[in-house]
Design brief:
The structure holds 2 protein chains of 2 kinds. Chain A has 14 helices and 2 strands; from the N terminus they run H-H-H-H-H-E-H-H-H-H-E-H-H-H-H-H. Chain A is mostly helical. Chain A starts with a helix and ends with a helix. A 6-stranded mixed β-sheet of chain B has the order 6-7-8-3-9-10, with helices on both faces. A 4-stranded antiparallel β-sheet of chain B has the order 2-1-4-5. The chains are: A mainly alpha, B alpha/beta. The interface between A and B is medium-sized, with 19 and 28 residues.
Chain lengths: 319, 246
């Protein structure tokens, strides 16, 4: 990374670190936490669908499996949520392997359909499983506050944890971009036959991608449950579309795509809701939806795509 | 030379390979062998089964019967990436390079096969790009290149995998005469590196002079094998291309 880029990141990180000391309004903190949350989720989807090109239409299933594993272990067995988080990762990654191993050998569309089906199946099963709270969900017991219990009264500890998760996601994506994994994923995305002909074990690398993807989504699921101190199927399994949206608007296959997408979409959604939802005519949804349509039509590669094209055009002009 | 000695010497040994697609027998019990250091040409009219045979050797298809040995490893039924790892790499008839990546990145992908380290892969890729006279387009994106350059990038990418044998599938197709001459020069340079070549070609003026041996297919069967001279004079071959003399 260039010295300039490192400098920018240090400044950015410092700003993030001191932000909670400047703004104490819980609502603003909530928006910031949601931005970190969706950035991490977007990044998890980006690794599998953006870089490796395997379209996952049910990313929320990994979020949900991670969250529910932690929740069930905590509520029914009293197991510490951090341990529950590890268990959640194991469950989510195992599920990802069970989907990936058979489906990755078929054409991409079959994997996409399988992911659509799996998330629906898990959603419906959990909704009827009383041990997991069924459709009403589970309320988390208050065993105590503090880092040890992954439960806090104030918002700022959640802010920092979410920030750490986001940084893990960005660092992982960065590592992928800079290593042979990035090249291999992009090759698989563009042309599987070429990948094979270059000695790339396509199945192996797709499995690596889905492992990273499910891991990141799973820890987000654990986090979300601990943040809300409540879990239900609707909260956990219906987020696939916002996750994809955040990445596609920000930049599909770009390192900063999910971050930019989340930073743009979530405040927009909130602002639109505050100012324009009062009339009851869903104007806020119209604005939110129009923004999405405009960006997708103008530049399918999202905001990062617009930036990239602008930069290339400027470079060409200057030559 | 006895058969046993032949077998030990040949780098690629195709034995009675048959490939059927439903009712169509695309390759019918074809055998051929390629010795290390040779340039072997595979010719035949359209539909003769050349690309299908290539795909069987490269692992894209699994032969219905027969065996293929490369460097004494049985490779029929193995996956393409395993075969590439063993040192047998192929180029594609319709050139397939990664359009969104630069030339350098395309070749780096190939280089990663032998070493996952980015720096060393990059160095290796740059050496090969130099070797293939592609330095001037190193940073151009795949989509910006002409067909001739794209084909050379594919060759460079194949070379980056450190192959022992390269399968060239109509690498001359679509090249003008000047590009064709450059391609031939590159092929000789590749042979000088000790790499064995098996190439499918339609352009006779190019493949005949450079091949040590020519194998002729027609309608899935091998009808002749020999030196370029023998092949060009053989009646069966002439009939296959021009039709039976009336």
């Amino acid at each position: 990374m260039s010295k300039k880029a490192i400098f920018v990141w240090v400044i950015f990180l410092s700003m993030l670190l001191i932000f909670p000391f400047l703004i104490e309004a819980p609502y603003i903190m909530h928006i910031a936490i949601m931005i970190f949350f969706y950035t991490t989720l977007g990044a998890s989807w980006n690794i599998l669908s953006g870089y490796a090109g395997q379209l996952n239409l049910g990313q929320s299933v990994f979020l949900g499996v991670g969250g529910y594993t932690t929740a069930i272990l905590l509520v029914r067995f009293g197991i510490n949520p951090w341990i529950g988080m590890i268990a959640g990762v194991i469950a989510a990654v195992s599920l990802s392997w069970m989907i990936g191993f058979p489906c990755f050998r078929l054409q991409g569309r079959y994997f996409a359909i399988a992911t659509m089906a799996i998330v629906q199946i898990v959603y419906l099963v959990i909704g009827r499983w009383q041990f997991a709270g069924g459709a009403r969900g589970l309320s988390y017991p208050l065993v105590g506050w503090g880092l040890k219990n992954f439960a806090f009264r104030e918002k700022f500890p959640y802010y920092y944890i979410a920030m750490v998760f986001m940084l893990i996601a960005i660092c992982l994506t960065y590592y992928i971009e800079k290593s042979h994994l990035g090249y291999y994923f992009k090759t698989i995305r563009e042309d599987k036959d070429v990948a094979s002909a270059m000695g790339i074990n396509v199945l192996k690398y797709k499995m690596i991608a889905i492992t990273f993807s499910s891991f990141l989504s799973s820890i987000c699921g654990t986090f979300y449950g601990q943040y809300l101190l409540f879990i239900d199927p609707d909260t956990m399994f219906l987020l696939s579309v916002p996750i994809m949206l955040v990445t596609m608007i920000g930049g599909f296959g770009f390192l900063l795509g999910p971050l930019i997408g989340a930073a743009v979409l979530i405040p927009t959604q909130e602002v639109a809701r505050i100012f324009w939802s009062g009339s009851g005519r869903a104007i806020d949804q119209l604005i939110y939806g129009s923004l999405i349509v405009i960006i997708v039509v103008l530049q399918p590669r999202g905001l990062m795509g617009i930036y990239d094209s602008l930069r290339n055009n400027i470079i060409k002009l200057l030559k | 030379m006895s058969d046993k000695e032949d077998f030990k010497m040949s780098l690629l040994e195709v034995k009675n390979v048959t490939k059927k697609f439903g009712g169509l027998t695309a390759v019918n019990s074809v055998s051929l062998s390629v010795n290390e250091g040779q340039i072997v040409g595979l010719i035949g009219p359209n539909g003769a089964g050349k690309t299908t045979l290539f795909n069987c050797i490269a692992g894209l298809f699994c032969p219905n019967s027969g065996e293929i040995f490369f460097n004494n490893f049985k490779i029929n039924g193995k996956q393409p990436h395993e075969i590439c790892e063993k040192g047998l790499v192929r180029t594609f008839q319709i050139v397939k390079i990664l359009n969104k990546l630069t030339v350098l990145d395309n070749v780096i992908v190939g280089a990663f096969l032998r070493s996952k380290n980015v720096k060393s892969a990059k160095k290796k890729a740059e050496k090969i790009i130099d070797f293939c006279s592609l330095s001037h387009v190193k940073h151009a994106k795949g989509s910006e290149l002409t067909v001739g350059i794209k084909k050379r990038v594919e060759v460079a990418r194949a070379l980056a995998t450190d192959p022992k044998l390269i399968l060239f599938d109509e690498v001359m197709a679509g090249l003008n005469p000047k590009e064709g001459k450059e391609a031939v020069r590159l092929i000789y340079k590749i042979r000088e590196l000790g790499i064995t070549i098996l190439m499918v070609e339609h352009v006779m003026e190019i493949i005949m002079p450079i091949s040590d041996k020519i194998v002729v297919l027609e309608l899935g069967k091998k009808i002749m094998e020999g030196s370029s001279e023998e092949v060009s004079k053989n009646e069966k071959v002439i009939n296959a291309y021009l039709g039976v003399k009336s």
